[in-house]
Amino acid sequence: MTKIDRNIIDNIGEDIIAIMPVIHKKLINFVDEGVELDLSHYHFAILGMLSKSNALPVSEIGRRLLISKPQMTAMLNKLSDLGLVTRSQSPQDRRIVYISITPDGEKGLVQAREKIKKNLAVKLAGLSEADLEAFSAALKKINEVGSKIE
After folding, report:
1. Paired strand residues for 88
2. Per-residue CA distances from 36 to 22, 32, 133, 138, 150 (Å)
3. Which of 70, 51, 25, 69 is nearest to 111 (CA)?
4. CATH topology of domain 33-146
5. What is the pTM of this model?
6. How confident is the model at residue 20 (pLDDT cuts 50, 70, 90)?
């Protein structure tokens, strides 16, 4: 790694450490307010991922969200107990369990997204249009670049 690379990595690390409390305290905690389902942002991430796919193996969901198998089991149990997801075994390999979102899961996800959007509109109302556009572009770029990280 060159000197420039090391500086860039150091800056990225410091920026991540600095931005996490801002995201968590000012956005994540706030957007969950008033959402009827008592679910974490990881639960919503799972539902969102499943709403874009027919079914995914438990291992794939865990890999994408960087969640351990025991944590995945607990989260999926909660979603299943609430009737938001179903489990099914692969006909080819019974060791593989697929997770699918149910109609109630889709409905809950839509309702939560609407509530989150309303909460964000209130929270972000004080920003200028230029700030909102810059914030949106930055989030898209972070998502784009972040998806390339293995």
Report:
1. 98
2. 24, 9, 29, 29, 34
3. 51
4. Arc Repressor Mutant, subunit A (1.10.10)
5. 0.73
6. confident
